[in-house]
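Morning, I've got a small favour to ask if you have a moment. It would help a lot if you went through both lines with me. Thanks so much in advance, here it is.

***
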Amino acid sequence: MAVAGRIALPHVVEAYVDRTLDQLEGYTGSVDDVDLALWRGAYRVEGLRIEKMDGEVPVPFFRAHTIDLSVAWDALLRGSIVAELALHSPELNFVVGPEPAQEQTEPASNWRETVEELVPFRIDRVTLQGGAVHYRDFHGDPEVDIYLQELEGAVTNITNSEELGGSRFARFDVRGTAMQSGDLRIEGSVNPYAEQPTFELRGELAQLDITQLNPFLKAYAAVDAERGAFSLDLELAAAGGEFRGYVKPFIRHLKVLDLGDDDQGFLTKVWEGVVEVTSEVLEDQPRDTIATRVPLRGDIEDPNADVWATIGGLLRNAFIESLRRGLEGDIGGGDEDGGEGG
């Protein structure tokens, strides 16, 4: 009887996980398999997928090869049941499109409740191995896929941020690669229990081969880059229904082949939206360098607003603006043939 129970239990847990994932608003979820290791208080989920229910988006919102959850024994010895979560090859896909049914830009509104049902005790640490994040536009001309890959990092102090009377912020530090060439680091802190986005974020991207972005440039800026190196500094904070910060893009040794004829239409599309953005030129830049500083500020008045889509669109516009300024000759110098500069 005990043996039969041990054989059946993983299938029971797998069915429970599938039912719980199906409670996500607007999404459906499934797993390939669940393995239990009761003797060490752990279980592994394999092949997790969370997909938009209407089926008009061709990639899942989230998927992971494996997710390992285990009890933190040091916390257990102190009388607390605390879990550690390890995500192996997780992938997030943000998708934009001409119609709402063709987009997926934010998680389900009840994702916190779903996580609490799947993990009935507190998570203190989450580690990330081999992660990826994609920004996709399947309706662009050409199709767009901007991605971060080989993401490694951790979110720590999650439990303490809720239980202690002091800071409620968890800390995160993630490193990776952008589009096979750029070195990426993102660090900061976040209040995971706040109703509205509450975080401080600092990011650095160095030496991304700009030709990797040509589908993006052709689709949104009517530009084809022949060469160039893109770097970026970013600071962003959100609290109390507002977010503010800046993005500082740098483009070195840029050479482009063409700019679309519909320049006014392009500029109108770039700057439409609810967030007011102003940019200022950085002076004394090295020769053959395009640089600008774009302040970011916005209000999150609607609690149901797609905040991350707004911020993501703002960052996209900041990059295009720095490129536009370089093409107009407003920033930096350089030889007409794009030769090496100082």
In short: Residues 197-342 form one domain.
